[in-house]
């Protein structure tokens, strides 16, 4: 983080020295900003490594539609059919390669996410998504209802100074009636 700040200050100093005429206010520097979208996989079939149900596939499409203009630069998923299938429409839409992470190493993955700027989608599970949000410094909210909650979308912004701002949104068809849920 310190190295990015020093490089940013040096770049600003160079631009200031080279400017010969007043310029309009610069756009905010988004290079040092991270936005993370965390979701649990969509509705799943039964079995040891189940795929998505038709409702889960529709939810995956709704996720891609929700993130269409978000500028996603990376897509991460665990190595399960249901998470990969949830991420697949967004990967197809953006042309990005789906990368995998090991949910058993969440603290290391969270640290890496915090240290690398970009706009990232991370697809996980009911027992890892809220835990990852907490490791990132976000408010995890109540525990995800493993049996019925598939529409939670964490939006986590981390500015160049390391300040974390987060909110929980809903996407796709409501997976169950939740107080205060919004689309």
Task: Sum up the structure in keywords.
6-stranded mixed β-sheet, globular, 19% strand, 183 residues, 5 helices, 6 strands, alpha/beta
What would you say about this model in short?
By secondary structure, this protein is α/β, with parallel strands linked by helices.
Descriptive overview:
This protein is of the alpha/beta class. A 6-stranded mixed sheet has the order 3-2-4-1-5-6, sandwiched between helices. The two termini are 34 Å apart. The N terminus is likely disordered.
Which term fits the overall shape? Answer: globular
**Rounded mean pLDDT score:** 85
The main sheet comes to: 6 strands, mixed
Rg (CA only): 18 Å
**How many E strands?**
6
Counting DSSP H or I runs of 4 or more residues, the number of helices is 5
Q: Work out the strand percent.
A: 15-25%
Provide the low-confidence segments as ranges: 1-30
Structural class call reads alpha/beta
Strand order of the largest sheet: 3-2-4-1-5-6
H and E order: HEHEHEHEHEE
| First-residue to last-residue Cα separation | 34 Å
Q: Helix share of residues?
A: 25-40%
Map the helices and strands.
Blueprint: H1 2-18, E1 34-40, H2 54-67, E2 74-77, H3 81-94, E3 98-100, H4 106-115, E4 118-124, H5 129-135, E5 152-158, E6 164-170
Parallel strand pairs: 1-4, 2-3, 2-4
Antiparallel strand pairs: 1-5, 5-6
